Amino acid sequence: MKLLADRRRHPMALVALLLVGLLLTGGAYALFTQTSSAKADTASASDIEEGKKLFAANCATCHGMNAEGSKAGPGLIGVGAAAVDFQVGTGRMPLQANGPQARVKEPQFDEEQTAQLAAYVASLGPGPAVPEDEYLDASKGDPAAGGGLFRTNCAMCHNVVGSGGALTRGKYAPNLSEVSEKHLYEAMQTGPQNMPIFNDANLTPDDKRDVIAYVKEVSDNPSPGGFKLGSLGPVAEGLFIWFFGLAAVIGLTVWLSSRSK
Q1: Which one of 54, 56, 110, 142 has the fewest CB atoms closer than 10 angstroms to its CB?
Q2: Average pLDDT of the segment spanning 96-101
């Protein structure tokens, strides 16, 4: 019994337990990430091969031939299909010119080519997949719940109604009114540009759908007064009209007085 107790207290037992814990944690993480990228894993071998060709011709200059990254661009191994679908689908990539952040422009690739590029990058390592259609249907979301989540997590940059706003050093949060449901979901999922990542532990897929429902509702909500002025509310908009209206009246008065002389 004494010999058995000595063996249990052996320092190597702690090392063995630590290794077992690391293996279990790594296995659970790998299972989770593989589940989250299950949709991307269904891509055919031909799509991945075509995506590899497109990548070599259009992306490797900055991101490296094997997506390992370079001084001109970050590595893409493990970013998943969703990040590629967002960046390429919104025209931000390939990058048109260096600047504080990539700008939205007409996509260079069609939907099939974008899916092939996403499939190739997804094959390099597990990462967030392109979202399932059920989480993109805004009609199934709860705008009220989404509004609370949006005001808590997004409004400080995108404005309370998603109309966008300026950030530091020439960066900006874009207007969300014209962004598709899929790209809204992928932005939350992957955290492009200056945006934080809201993975499923932060915002569940249902939460993301609620946020999308809120953004679509406030974007489609008409403004009875004509100009929304950022939907800042009646007090701020009243002050805006009062300030510029008063300035216009004073300017007109000065102009008429000068002409009478």
Answers
A1: 110
A2: 86
